[in-house]
Batch of 3 targets.
Target 1
Amino acid sequence: MFKPQQPRPTPQSRPGALALDICLAKTYGQQQPGRKVLNHCHIVGEVAKALLGRMPAWLVAELFPQGSELIAACHDLGKVSPTFQEKIYRGTEHYQQNSKPGLSNAKPETEKLWGGHAGVSQATAKALKVGRYIPEIIGQHHGYSPDLGIRKADYDEFGGKVWQERRSELLDGLKHLLACDFPVVSNDLQAKALAGLTTVSDWIGSGSLFDDPTHDWRPNISNALDNAGFVQPSIRSGLSFFDLFGFEPRDIQRQLISSSQQSGVYVLEAPMGIGKTEAALYAAYQLMASQQATGLYFALPTQLTSDKIHERVTRFLTKILTADSPHQKALLLHGNAWLKQTELGVEGNPNGSWFESGKRGILAPFAVGTIDQALMAVMNVKHGFVRAFGLAGKVVILDEVHSYDAYTGTLLDELVTALRGLQCTVIILSG
C-alpha cells in the first residue's frame, strides 16, 4: 500500500529558483496573483478523482486505475519554471523585473520552442521516471505532444537542476495531498483515455468557481462537475419497443434486440425502411437502462442525415429519460451544427454551453453527428484523445456504413477496434 510522503521542505531562499509556495499558476481579477501551482494542480487532481467517482465501476476498472488522479494533477509541473513564472509575474500589478531569484535571465517568448510549460511538464515527468506513457499524457494536455527536441528536464532553458528540484518537490507534495502514487498504464488506448481525463479535469478545474485564491475550493468541485454537465442521466426502466416507437418490432428488429443485451459489436444489414434506426436505438436503451453503457453517439456519413436522425434521437430521449434528468436533447455535432443550434435557441443546448465547443461536444452523454467526429478519436489530431475519453463506455451506432469508400472503411475498422477497447458497444447499420 502506498504510504503518503511528506512534502519536502521548501526554503524561502534557495539561489536560482523561486520557492514553491510563491510559484503562480495564474493571475486573478485586476492583475492580482492567483492560485499557486501546487494549489491548482491539487484542484485538478481532486476534480479528476470526483469525475471518476461519477463513472460506473466497470468502466473505471478497465481504463482508469487507482492513481489516475495523480496523472491529471501533474499536468502543470512545468509551470514551475523560470520562463513561465516570469511570464505570469509580468501580468501582475507592481511587477518589477529582476526582483525574484532565478527570473532575471528568463525569456518567456522562447517557450514556443518547446511547447511551453506542457513541454517542461513532459520533460520533468520523464526525468523522474514516473512510468511508461505518463510523461506524454501530461505533456499533451493542451491538445498535442510538445516537440522537446534534445531538451531534458535539467536544461538551462528550464532552469537547470535547481528548478528541476522544485518540480520534484511539487510532485512529492501532490503525492502527499492525493495520497496515491502513479498507476501502471498498460497500452496506447488506455493512455488516450487518461490523457482525455487529464485535459477535461484541467478544463473544469480552471473554471471560474476556482478563480478566487482566497476562497475554499473544495465545496465547489461537485458544483463544477454539475455545471459542466457531468451528471449521470436517469433512464426509465421497463419500457417496451412499443412504448418508444408506437408499433411492435419486426422479426429482424427482434433479432438485434435479443442478441444485443450485453456489450459487444453487432451488425444489422437490411433494406431501407425496415426500421434499423429503431432497432439500434432500442438496443442502446436496453444497455443504458441496465447500466452497461453510459450514453449514446449516433454517427452518420453526412450533415444532412445527421440533422434528420438528430430529431428522432431527441424524441427517443424524451421517452427514455425521467422528467428531472438532464440532457433532454441530443447534442448535434458537425461543421454546421451551430446553424441548427441557433434555430433551436438556448433550450436546444444540453446543460448550457459547456459542451458546445467542438472538441468538447462528444463528451455529452447523448450526441448525433458525422462519422468524422468519432474517427478523430483514433486519428492524430489535436485533442483526439478528448474524443476517445468522451466515447468511452457509450453505445456507438455507425449508420449507413455501406456508403463509405475504402479509405474510410479502413479507418472504421480501426475505430471499431478502439471503441471496443474503450468499453463501448458498437452497432453497425448497413443497407
Target 2
Amino acid sequence: MLTTVAIMFVILLIALVVGGFLILFYNGLVRGKNRVEEAWSGISVQIKRRHDLIPALVRTVKGYATHENETLTRVTEARSQAMSAPPDSLASVIQAENGLSRALRSLFAVAENYPALMASENFLQLQAQLSQLEDEIQMARRYYNGTAREQNNRVLQFPGNLIAGTFGFSKIAYFELDDESEAEMPEVQF
C-alpha cells in the first residue's frame, strides 16, 4: 500500500513538473509572439509616416519640375501600392515598400537636375524628414528581425518545436530586402 501511494505521488509530481514546464514554455511563446507583433507595429507606424510625407514631397517637386510627370506618377503609384499592401502579408509589404524606395530614389535623382528645387527650403526639409524616417524604419526593421529571431529560436529548437507545433506557433518571416541594392537608402543630397 505504501509503495502504491509513493508511486502515485511520484507520478503526480512528474505530471506537475511537466505541466509547469509546458505552461512556462507556452507563456514564453505567447510573449515572443506579442513582441514580434509589437515590433511589426513599430515598422507600420514608420511606414505610415513615410506614406504621409510623400504627397507633400511630390507637390513640392511638381512645382519646380513640371516636365517630370512620369517620375512623379511612379512615386504616387508606388505609394498607393504600398498603402494597399495587405498588412498581414509581410512579402507584399516588403515588395511594395521596395518599389516605393526605388521610386523615391529616382525622384531624388531627377531633383538634382533642378537647382531651384534643390535650393528650396521646403524641399530640403522634406528630404531631411524622409532621411530621418528611413533611419527609423531601418531601426524598426532591425528590432523586428531580432524579435523574430528570438521567437524562431523558441519555435524551432527542441523541445520548443514539439510544443510550438502543438499550439499552432510557426516560424516568423524576417523583414528582408529582395535585392541587396535595396539596402541603400534613397539618395538624399543637400
Target 3
Amino acid sequence: METGNLILNNISGYIRLDQKDKAFFISLLKPIKLKRRQMLLEEGEICRFSSFVTHGCLRGFSVDENGFEHVLNFAPQNWWIADMYSLITQKPGVLNIEALEDTEILTLSKVSQEKLYLEVPVFERFFRIITENSLVSYQQRLLDNLSLTAEERYVNFCRRYPTLVNGLPSKQIASYIGVTPEFFSKLRHNMLKKIS
C-alpha cells in the first residue's frame, strides 16, 4: 500500500476528509528513512514533530541513572509516536526514539500541525482523539505495572502488539514488561508448557 494511502486510512477511522483536505495534509508530511538502531529523537532534545510509521518499527525508551533502558512503547507500521510531554510543552524531552529495524516514517511538524488546524479544523478532533487514547494507554500501563504479575503484563503486551510478539528480540519485550531477559525467558518457557 502506498504510504500516503496508509496514513489516510489510519485517519479515516476517526474523521472524514475531502480530496482537497487530504492533498493539503499529505503536502505537510515529510518522509524520513531510518536505518536499524538509528535515533529519531534523543533525551534532552525538543520533540518538534509527530511520526507515523509506514514501514518498520520504532521504540520509545528512557535510560535510568544506572544505565538501564526502560521501554515505554513501540510503534510498528500504522502507529503514531512522539515524546508527548516535549511535543506539547516544547521543553527538552525524556524519551529516546530509535528504529528497531530499517524504518520509514512520515513526520508532521508541530508548526505544520498548527497550520492544519487552521485550514482543516476537523484535524483538531483527530489529534485530540489520539492524544486521549495515548493518555488512557499510559495510565493503564502504569496501573498494570503496579498491580499485575509479569505473566499478566506479557499477556497485555501480546494483546497490544500482536504483530510484534514473534518479531521483537526478547530483551525488548522484557524491558517493556519490566523484567530481566533471563526472567522473561523462563516466563515464556513456563507459559508455553502450560499451553502444550
